[in-house]
Predict the structure of 30S ribosomal protein S1.
Amino acid sequence: MAQNTSMEEFEALLNESLEMDTPDEGSVVKGKVIAIEAGQAIIDVGYKMEGRVELKEFANPGETPDISVGDEVEVYLRAAENSRGEAVISREMARREEAWDRLEKAYADDARVEGAIFGRVKGGFTVDLGGAVAFLPGSQVDVRPVRDAGPLMGLKQPFQILKMDRRRGNIVVSRRAILEESRAEQRAEVIANLTEGQTVDGVVKNITEYGAFVDLGGVDGLLHVTDMAWRRVNHPNEILSIGETVKVQVIKINKDTHRISLGMKQLQEDPWDTVVAKYPLDSVHTGRVTNITDYGAFVELEAGVEGLVHVSEMSWTKKNVHPGKIVSTSQEVEVMVLEIDEAKRRVSLGLKQTMRNPWEVFAETHPEGTQVEGEVKNITEFGLFVGLPGEIDGMVHLSDLTWEGRGEDVIGNYGKGDIVQAVVSEVDVEKERISLSIKAVDGDPFAEAVGGVKRGTIITVEVTAIEDGGIEVEYEGMKSFIRRSDLSRDRAEQRPERFQVGDKLDVRVTNIDAKTRRLGLSIKAREIAEEKEAVEQYGSSASGASLGDILGAALKGDD
């Protein structure tokens, strides 16, 4: 009886021992490498169970296996026995289970994990996290887009887990988050050691149209194009190149945004400190055209000192021309200093002031009455514009085209390009106007005809036409008209028809109108004047003599 009890206890203990030593399928167990053959490791997992594992499962991606006989390793028991009576085990699945446990804890603690990028997939890369494979999106590789990820492949480095799902086997990691965190810490440390006004050395990291980014040792500062030099800089690559070491001054630090503004020109002497002394008003200097706009041209007097030649100060004669047709970029020109505004750091320059006013020169060389020759440049409704020396124009008004008739009737006789002779009649330098006269070239026939004639003079004229209102007469080629009321002192004799064309008549000049180029003539005025003279000479009405007696005596006197 006692013997039977002992056997039952032994059997129970044996079964308990067997149950304890026999591992469960689907669990991680410890085993010992007992042999390595044919690229496989033979592992004893206990209870006389052995299994085979490919050697590559003992190596990280891109590395050689590190396994030897006698090593203790953990493997995943997939099945206790296969068709060959061997245990089905996996080192890779054991590493994965171990990794997932470790990664879940790291994810919960928001801790970094170590891994290595080993492959490229659509939209990013694959990362080995010590047994578990994670996805690294392309946007999470670096703070800036990475063109070549070759140097990062196989390199062990820290990552941040962004998302993980064990059931689906998905893990998403970020390398960028680690870099940004490190960058922020490094940036804060560097900024803490910087002060405004401090001079530091930096390396040009990137160049844009508006400036350059300079690495100050872990933190970037912006060197704006306007702070690179006192002179005008059209593009930063004129004076900087990527990788160049430069000395800069810290202009401003924004503690909130960690933005740093840098300057190079602040380390140089400001040329504006001596501008007023070096460039007094009305002084003439040689400069170089640096930029041309619609409203003028910028001229560099020296590095850092530029002045504007406004379009209105560029030429005496070219008024509505683009500045680019007067000067060209990089051209050296002489300019005059017109105004200096130190507060706004502006210099107003003049180009035309370095040359004499062509209207002044013309007035000196061509006084009024001088005859000139020029080409008809333009024809308008009020006259002709004629080109003159000094690239200036003079105007011939309609009224100065001809002595006879209307200017509107003869302007059609002229065309652009015609060479004409004219006389300078007026020069207005202030208004930049020159008046010319074509009709004055051959003199004034009216003035020549009436040169010795005065009011009250008796002249002889020839009748050229008979009209109802009077008669037309001619004197030295000049036409005049005698009205009916001026044909005779006697109303009965004021008949135009009593005259004939060709008759010679003595008339009295009553008016000389140079503007209308007309003589006022009158037979009546001549007769009245003769009567008055006869009365004064031969008697008066007070003496009792009649007009007939007086005239008779006057006639005898004439005989």
